[in-house]
Amino acid sequence: MPAVTVNGGKVVYEVLGATGDLIVLTPGGRYSKDIPGLRPLAEALAGGGYRVLLWDRPNCGASDIQFYGQTESHMRAETLSGLLAELDTGPVILAGGSGGARDSMLTTMLYPDLVTDLVLWNIVGGVYGTFNLGAYYVLPSLQAVRGLGVEGLLRMREWRERIAENPDNEQRLRSLDPGEFVKLSLRWLNAYVPKPGQTIPGVDDEMFDRIRVPTLIIRGGANDLDHPKRTSLEVSCLIEGSTLIDPPWPEDAWERAIEDRAQGRAQQYNMFDTWVLAAPQILKFLGER
């Protein structure tokens, strides 16, 4: 896979499609561009006449591990701006779900000249959703370093997987300063503490005034605690002129995927398998702009 260096770290990417405006498609969590369910959506969008950029964000897939910035999403937004500069591309369409939605929103806020359109779904918010992110993505590594130093990170499955995909990551982990890592982790963790005036974690609501591009929002499922319906409605109010639509997948698709995974049974709904169902609505929205 091609890669470029941004802020001292390698970023792996690929582009689907030969012509058309560029869509940057970003998944959630710390999942790579190869997470099941993402490529079918990318291929459907490419089939609709667009080029689609898939990328491994820092700490995801085969890209380099990096730790800096106000939050992990701030780091990703800065990385994406650098990636687009290295690729010498003009303004792009940003599309993302879950953590990818937050990354896309923040990139639009911080680098508005880079974005022409914004498409969002599965937006994380609420007490359960934000606390869950901090507990899953920050606390384990913070606790490991406090107890065992950097050696603790090397024992964790998450970081062993990053080393398996990119052997350079072992040395990048070993070179971390434990004290500085703890400070950064506490800062990143603080972003996931729900606060008044922050509909999405770590971002003040006033920042939404910077989003001035056509925006499509697919609302959260009725009972989805990770991506609450309420949060998507609030974001639609904060982004002036945005378009809000019902999800094209079943209301309980996310809950079914979580239940299937927890019980170890064959999944009727992979966490991202339903995303391809949004392709017609996304293409329609972009075609009407």
Automatic annotation (TrEMBL):
<feature type="domain" description="AB hydrolase-1">
    <location>
        <begin position="23"/>
        <end position="228"/>
    </location>
</feature>
<dbReference type="GO" id="GO:0016787">
    <property type="term" value="F:hydrolase activity"/>
</dbReference>
<keyword id="KW-0378">Hydrolase</keyword>
<dbReference type="InterPro" id="IPR029058">
    <property type="entry name" value="AB_hydrolase_fold"/>
</dbReference>
<dbReference type="InterPro" id="IPR000073">
    <property type="entry name" value="AB_hydrolase_1"/>
</dbReference>
<protein>
    <submittedName>
        <fullName>Alpha/beta hydrolase</fullName>
    </submittedName>
</protein>
<dbReference type="Pfam" id="PF12697">
    <property type="entry name" value="Abhydrolase_6"/>
</dbReference>
